[in-house]
């Protein structure tokens, strides 16, 4: 999880949210879920994707383009608890299926006890760290621990994806170091350093993990 700056509310939401909310609240006794075609409108999804570089807000996995890989629009606070936030822009997040489906409800672990990726006042790296691919609370952070538990950020599937990214990085690094030795150079070229540091850029999958990883190997 990294900090994400929220973009302006999409025009479709500004235009339609009051109408959508009124209709949803009127029908809610019979249908407790708001229509996903509304809060999951393409313009809303695209804006959320642009905010996160098309990554899950919570685990930082890259989302695909296929229908079953595009991720889901998550209500940060569930509509079961706060139905009036069903179309609130600040309550809409982009999540992979697993983070959304395995997320513990606010009544079990409230969001106030966890990190909010859209809260720019708080540095997520002060609360989360990694031992290789395994996510851990930093310095016993309770917020870090709550975040990991709420979104199951230590699940096996994520560890597998993170290992794959680490292997990709190590493959690149070995190639660059071998080239440096072959060329008789004392250091990496600027473009080679840039390639290494690209792994910790916000657009890269699991960028927080790579910030920790690169620091640990003095890169």
* Helix and strand pattern: HHHEEHEEHHHH
Instruction: Name the average pLDDT.
Output: 92
Helical proportion, percent range: 40-55%
Sequence stretches where pLDDT stays below 50 over 5 or more residues: none
**How does the helix and strand content classify structurally?**
mainly alpha
Largest sheet: 2 strands, antiparallel
What quaternary form is this? single chain
Distance between the termini: 21 Å
Number of strands: 4
Number of helices: 8
Relative strand content: 5-15%
Spatial order of the strands in the main sheet?
1-2
User: What is the gyration radius calculated from CA atoms?
Assistant: 20 Å
Q: What overall form do the CA principal axes indicate? A: elongated
Task: Explain what this protein looks like in three dimensions.
With 219 residues, the chain is mostly helical. The chain has 8 helices and 4 strands, in the order αααββαββαααα. The longest helix is centred in the last third of the chain and has 28 residues.
